[in-house]
Design a protein that fits this description.
The complex is a heterodimer of chains A (184) and B (113). Chain A contains four helices and eleven strands, in the order H-E-E-H-E-E-E-E-E-E-H-H-E-E-E. Chain A is of the alpha+beta class. In chain A, the strands form three sheets. In chain A, strands 3-6-8-9-10-11 form a six-stranded mixed beta sheet. A three-stranded mixed beta sheet of chain A has the order 5-4-7, with no helix packed on it. A two-stranded antiparallel sheet of chain A has the order 1-2. Chain B has 113 residues and is mostly beta strands. Classes of the chains: A alpha+beta (184), B mainly beta (113). At the A-B interface, helix 2 of A face strand 4 and strand 5 of B.
Chain lengths: 184, 113
């Protein structure tokens, strides 16, 4: 879906001038999106998952795992700061001083009350339209991890991990992580 | 990190020791964590080095580490009678072992991207 903003279309230049005040600013197809600083539960889950993915990827030289704040510059008018990003070796050339220029391999969003709608709706469409191959949605309240795979331009639910099932999911099929270890 | 009603900061990394876990609530941590880590950046270098050093000493945060990405160094400070005194200053191929994580065993060289 192409959004048609009624106001001025914002670009990376506008984004770079935004204040560093703890809130998460993003530009979605030229439109400003602001969400408040995440709460404790969100950050604890984010660190645990990020650390596990980082250790896994680093040990196997699969690529780079980065946690927010980290800019994903999908285009000059779409800049997002996902909670966790994985950039596989074949895409590490996209990492610049500013962040990653173009689609990373995997984007992980951890739902919080203030981002739930955006993560499931606007971000879903954005990541699909810019060709991010994998999108995980982590719901700390429902204690569920949903793994989406990009298939012909839209996301298909590839796996829904809940309960005591180990978290082995694309693009990390051999990852053994018990979701119970994530929840705060 | 809510140090007081008028001092709220967002350090890069915070470690809250098991004895302080009950200070964590929905908003963040209320009061001093065990360790604060700041990664020095050109635009925050002066703030982290001078202003935050005083800011963190006041509510008695026991340990403060500063990671200097450009110099490839880590400075570790311990609070002693309301002032931070250096406990370790690491560079090159040294291993990061410093209070409050004396067995961390992190090779410094693995940090730099």
């Amino acid at each position: 879906m192409v959004m048609t903003p009624a106001r001025a279309v914002l670009t990376y230049q506008d984004y770079a001038a935004l204040p560093d005040d703890g809130r998460r600013y993003e530009i979605h197809e030229g439109e400003l999106s602001v969400t408040p600083a995440p709460g404790s539960k969100h950050q604890i889950v984010s660190m645990r998952l990020g650390a596990a993915l980082h250790a896994y990827a680093e040990a196997r030289s699969l690529g780079i795992v980065v946690a927010a704040p980290f800019d994903v510059i999908l285009s000059d008018r779409t800049i997002v700061q996902p909670d966790i990003v994985f950039i596989a070796t074949d895409r590490v050339g996209r990492i610049s001083e500013r962040g990653v220029e173009g689609a990373p391999t995997l984007v992980v969003e951890i739902l919080s009350p203030s981002t739930r709608e955006t993560d499931r709706d606007a971000k879903f469409r954005l990541y699909a339209s810019y060709g991010v191959p994998w999108y995980w949605i982590v719901d700390p309240d429902a204690r569920v991890v949903e793994v989406y795979r990009l298939d012909a331009g839209s996301y298909v639910l590839s796996k829904r991990i809940a309960g005591d099932e180990p978290l082995g999911a694309e693009p990390f099929p051999d990852l053994v992580l018990l979701p119970a270890a994530l929840w705060a | 990190m809510i140090l007081s009603d008028t001092t709220i900061v967002q350090p890069d990394i915070v470690f809250v020791g098991a004895d302080r876990l009950e200070r964590i609530n929905e908003r963040g941590i209320e009061g001093a964590p065990t360790l604060v880590v700041e990664i020095l950046l050109p635009r925050t270098r002066q703030i982290d080095r001078y202003i935050k050093t005083r800011l963190y000493a006041r509510p008695s945060i026991p340990y403060y580490w500063m990671v200097d990405r450009d110099a490839h160094g880590v400075e570790c400070y311990t609070l002693e009678s309301s002032n931070y005194t250096p406990s370790a200053w690491l560079t090159g191929n040294q291993t990061l072992n410093a209070a409050p994580l004396p067995d961390l065993g992190l090779p410094l060289a693995s940090l730099w991207a």
